[in-house]
Design brief:
The chain is α+β, with helices and mostly antiparallel strands. It folds into 3 domains: 2-150, Beta Barrel (Butyryl-CoA Dehydrogenase, subunit A, domain 2), CATH 2.40.110; 157-314, Up-down Bundle (Butyryl-CoA Dehydrogenase, subunit A, domain 3); 332-476, no CATH class. It is built from 14 helices and 12 strands. The strands form 3 sheets. The protein has a 5-stranded mixed barrel with strand order 2-3-10-5-4. A two-stranded antiparallel sheet has the order 6-7. A two-stranded antiparallel ribbon has the order 11-12.
Length: 477
């Protein structure tokens, strides 16, 4: 509704108001059987009726909440190619196609429009959501309205996609958070074995598994990613707030940089947030031992439900390509340089003399590692203008760079939290808050010492990249 209100005609804005007032459902309709990540390959067509309406024809798949009875109407935002338009994404336009026709004067719902669910997918998880195949114009005309001008569809849809990517990343991170808390609760009550220091004493008391070193390592790994990724969501939302303030006329906001930073961070929230959450949920399940494999506990469902977050609204590979080519190269590296400067301030914060001197040093090395990979990918991208095959080396490392950047940001944000926690403890925090602040400090230290050194290995691998794998015959796989 917000997209229609921002880009639509006066009558379409009225339609958007009805959507909100009446609580109608809405969908994003991009994917087709032969057009997934390659949206520009879409075959859905639109035919101008000459009266302000269009007939949309084609089949779309993987449409979240494409059909249900929880709303009186469902409004489909459909990417289709107007008759005679050129190929690729530039030929696509965006159309508003409701499930039921609507009288805009009265808001009354009329006859059924020609869009029907022709299949409901049987999925690994997320089974409460009806993921549908939708067919337009097969039984009767699927009538809709063009939003904005022709050939603006992909730019318009990206406004929706950007919101969706933030939402998906946030959802994934929230799932990790509850997975960790379930694992923590179980570990605090599960009594198994003796303390490792007394393992040879058969008469030693049994202890909860939180006393075992590897369980603590596992819990800290989950905790650091859950809290670090949550901080990343909040940090990105901060820039989004600045965008809104700047667009509203706040002259104290650097709107240009706020928009650039939001653009830079979105693939990290979505890509890293979803990948690390799915990875860490497996660690959460492991905390339960064999019991985690049972439906008695929620982790097996969390894992099945969370996998989709790495896939829809752009797979992680797409996020990596977007992160480098659009959010760095097209941006002329302005936002990534700005972010690096912010991290450098933290690295140099206490001139290496404070409580977090070791962590600041590790953060500085990790920043250098990430910058080195950015530089190497930039060199290969430039070289590809003379030798196109050089771009293969970029493509082999964009996901690596995305994940490295995520860990770098998490370490930075956790360290900033640790600084706040230290100040709170020094100021005399209440007894009920001390453990919380102590946990923040140790989490930042642990993540810096245990995860940041891995970025150096990733840098070595990236810098040694060749294109041998691209020369391997398909039959050899």
């Amino acid at each position: 509704a917000a997209i229609i209100d921002a880009m639509g005609t006066d009558s379409q804005k009225e339609f958007a108001r009805l959507m909100i007032d009446k609580g109608w459902g809405a969908t994003m309709v991009l994917t087709e059987p032969d057009a997934g990540s390659d949206v520009g390959a879409g075959r859905a067509k639109a035919f101008d009726n000459g009266d302000g309406t269009w007939n949309v024809e084609g089949t779309k798949r993987f449409i979240t909440s494409g059909e249900h009875d929880m709303a009186d109407n469902i409004v489909h935002m459909v990417l289709a190619r107007p008759e005679g338009a050129g190929p690729g994404t530039k030929g696509l336009s965006l159309f508003i196609v409701p499930k039921f026709h609507v009288d805009l004067a009265t808001g009354e719902i009329g006859e059924r429009n020609g869009v029907y669910a022709t299949n409901v997918e049987k999925k690994m998880g997320l089974k409460a959501s009806s993921t549908c195949e939708l067919t337009f114009g097969e039984k009767e005309p699927a009538v809709g309205w063009l939003l904005g001008e022709v050939h603006e569809g992909i730019a318009q849809m990206f406004k929706v996609i950007e919101y969706a990517r933030m939402m998906v990343g946030t959802k994934a991170i929230a799932t990790l958070s509850t997975g960790y808390l379930n694992a923590l609760d179980y570990a605090k009550t599960r009594v198994q074995g003796a303390d490792l220091t007394q393992m040879m004493d058969k008469s030693s008391p049994r202890v909860t598994i939180t006393h075992h070193p590897d369980v603590r390592r596992s819990l800290m790994l989950q905790k650091s990613y859950a809290e670090g990724l949550r901080a990343l969501v909040a940090y990105t939302a901060y820039w989004q707030d600045l965008v809104v303030m700047g667009q509203a006329g706040d002259t104290n906001v650097d709107l240009d940089m706020a928009e650039r930073m939001n653009d830079l961070l979105l693939p990290v929230v979505k890509g890293v947030g979803s990948e690390r959450s799915y990875e860490m949920l497996a660690v959460s399940l492991q905390t339960f031992g064999g019991s985690g494999f049972l439906q008695d506990y929620p982790l097996e469902q969390y894992i099945r439900d969370a996998k989709i977050d790495t896939l829809y609204e752009g797979t992680t590979a797409i996020q990596g390509l977007d992160f480098f080519f659009r959010k760095m190269v097209r941006d002329q590296f302005k936002s990534i340089f700005y972010l690096a400067a912010q991290i450098t301030e933290t690295v140099k914060g206490d001139e290496g003399k404070g409580a977090f001197a070791r962590e600041r040093e590790l953060l500085g090395v990790a920043l250098e590692d990430a910058q080195a990979v950015v530089g190497r990918l930039g060199d290969w991208a430039m070289a590809s203008q003379q030798n196109p095959e050089e771009v293969y080396k970029v493509g082999l490392n964009t996901t690596r760079l995305l994940m490295m950047s995520g860990d770098l940001l998490i370490a930075w944000l956790l360290l900033r939290q640790a600084e706040v926690a230290t100040a709170a403890l020094e100021a005399g925090a209440a007894d009920r808050d001390k453990a919380f602040y102590e946990g923040k400090i140790e989490t930042a230290k642990w993540f810096a010492r245990n995860r940041l050194p891995l970025l150096t290995a990733e840098r070595v691998i990236a810098e040694a990249t060749d294109d041998d794998i691209m020369r391997l015959p398909e039959e050899a796989f």
